[in-house]
Amino acid sequence: MDLHSGSPFWALKNPLFQETDTLTEPIQTDVLIIGSGITGALVAHELCTAGIACAIVDKRSIAGGSTSASTAQLQYEIDVPLHELAEQVGEEKAAFAYRASLKSIADLKKVVKQTGISAEFTQVPTLLLASNRKGLRALKEEYAIRTKHKLPVSFLDREALKETYDIDRFGALKNNASAQIDCYRMATELLGYHRNNHQLKLFPYTEVIAYKRNADHFIVETQKGVSISCKYMVIAAGFEAGRFLPKKVMKLISTYALVSEPLPTESLWPERCLIWETRQPYFYLRTTSDNRIMMGGEDIPFKNAALRDIKLPEKTKVLENKFRKLFPHIPMVTDFSWCGTFSSTNDGLPYIGEYKDKKNLFFALGYGGNGITFSMIAAQLIRNKIQGKKDKREEVFGFER
């Protein structure tokens, strides 16, 4: 299935990744990672840095799936607000999940610094806007519980929001802990870095069609008829990982996004914050390094790719209208628009680790709107599991929760 259609900005902005290998005969490796997007790249980074030999296969081009369509906002907030998540999983686990997500942003920054890659990592604040009075009440509950657990947050009333950002909404929560990246560039440059420095093998257009487990290793069969032997497997293929799981753990969502023509710097809002709203389906926006405005949302349940795609012009107009209501003075003109499919879970948390009796078969499934921060968590957790180290995060993000 096509994971996206239209014109995803990152795939147009960046050159295609060309440094790959050809799988023509059976190979052996410590870890086989299925999926070459940002999740697979971060898993490879953690494992290669630890001295563990890896190979990556992907049925598409390198990072050619959902990564090229992501709007790449790094926020510690999870799709389910903390005060609601606390009711679902308990307050301590919910706060733990939020703290883990917060730490992952700093860890992503370290990855960029340590490898010297150019991922356009930029620290920016986040504004969560109250769309209506109901949203304002929710924000006040959210502010109270985040403050209780010492998470970075401040509250802006309507007057302060209007004075500082010229935004007319009922109020907002703000934090300075967020960031944004070019996730396609981060994924491809990470993979290139470890291919050059740690012999990471990259096999695009290589689909896994079957696997079997022997006493101490897996034999993986590809569509090209070549086998790969490995001690561990990591499934980092997003919602397409479902065929490796015995039961469905996610629901599919269609989402829409666009990017504007470049604007003068002075036309953009103060601090170039990440902005999103309490209303569902939510609306969010950010800027890019070349002064474009990127926005998205208008999520609907996924039924099929054709229905998702046919709604792209309609959803693009809805996004444009929402932006103009928020910032009527900014002369935004759409340059590219696209749509894609992603997965979400009932509690907004990812699934990371081994599934029940599937020993040495790890899942790195960063379902949800902040999948990149979850991907960082997954990469670290899986590295720890392979090295025999305990990781408390498995209790919150594992399949047994």
From TrEMBL:
Q: Carries keyword Membrane?
A: yes
Where does the chain cross the membrane? 361-382
InterPro entries, sorted: FAD-dep_OxRdtase (IPR006076), FAD/NAD-bd_sf (IPR036188)
Keyword set, alphabetical order: Membrane, Transmembrane, Transmembrane helix
- From which organism does this entry originate? Olivibacter ginsenosidimutans
| Coiled-coil stretches noted in the UniProt entry, renumbered to this chain | none
Matching entries from Pfam families are given as: DAO
Ranges of residues in domain FAD dependent oxidoreductase: 30-382
Q: Transferase: present as a keyword of the record?
A: no
Q: What is this protein called?
A: FAD-dependent oxidoreductase
